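REQUEST ID: PR-0412
SUBMITTED BY: lab tech R.K.
PRIORITY: routine
TASK: structure prediction, single protein chain
INPUT:
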Amino acid sequence: MVMIIDSHIAGISGDMFLSSLVDIGADKNKIIQGIKTAADFFPDSKIIKLDFEKTKKKGLEATRLVLEIQEDIHERKGIEIQKCIEESVNKLNLSDHAKKFSIGSIETLITAESHIHGEPLDSVHFHEAASIDTIIDIIGSAIALDDLELFDQEIVSTPVAVGGGTVSFSHGTTTNPASAILEIFKNTSIIIKGGQAVEELTTPTGASMLINLISSCQEFYPSLQVDGIGYGAGCKDFENFSNVLKIVTGKKSTEYIHDSVQILETNLDDISGEVLGNTIEKIMNSGAKDVTITSAITKKGRPTHLVSVICDSSKMNDLLELLFSETGTLGIRIRNSERVTLTRTIKSASIVIENKNFIVNYKTSPNQPSNFKIESDDIQKISHEIKKSFRYTEDFLRTEIKKTLEQK
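STATUS: complete
OUTPUT:
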């Protein structure tokens, strides 16, 4: 089972996410009762009305949170809200996953504000997030996710629309996305995009909840059979799109892994084979996923080597520096590429060859169990020990491993 949080168009806020979970089937009465229990730890705020009802956004039916509260407070310490959430999840006997999500979401908010303002964590004050709204969004979503048994499933996000223009808040006016959004998404897998509105589309609470849930952020949906769809309505109305957060649940048709990689490319026409060989070794030892060197012809009939490196974004700067220093190139092209791979595991087999016993490691996939690749280092080591060619050793090991697989 996989859940997709589709915030590609309208972004995400806490109430939109909670409403989408109710729309897809979470027990709203259980959520309302749980929120009211949590409100007991928030004595300065009173819930006058709390419900979920159907509404339409640009012709699309969705569920929205109906909330009326009474509170006369404009700021609270972050640690006060955190304590309230910790006490609430314990009293409600939520699952360990739900507790981790709830506490992690508020800690993310506090940490972001701490970094932005250069204050210790226990000194951070919330203004916009000081309302009981924050508690309702986080605790309500935790209860809903528990009720739908979604914490144990894979949760994927699309790129997140954050909006544009400016946003005004307690510290004045700033460009959108505000610093809190950028700080929350910093060093995560989340990809942000402007979207279609010159307004705030993603809130700090929504952003914090998102990064404490997802396992990956993907531009395209994984292959799946759709089981359920939920639409959570936001408060605003926009001319060009429905202001709803869409969540989709379903079964994956194939166990694909979707991720994004960086591809670094440069052309080298004045470099020796020895330097290329040394560069390949350093690139792989520095964390690249793969490196390919292809011979080609460029302008004026010049022979050249095209160096292509695949890496994670976290390794990109180190590998750029290495390419510049080792090859002397003056320019490197960079592009982001979506990648689909099969799930893989490393297995071991005990093989007797030339009256000697060896442990051989090989990679395989649950989707294609008969297709496997033996670790080349193992083949090389064994071929040296039995004094046979690499090709002979590989063929022998492959035959023996196939026999083992057929017996299972």
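NOTES: The chain has a mean pLDDT of 89.
REVIEWED BY: pending
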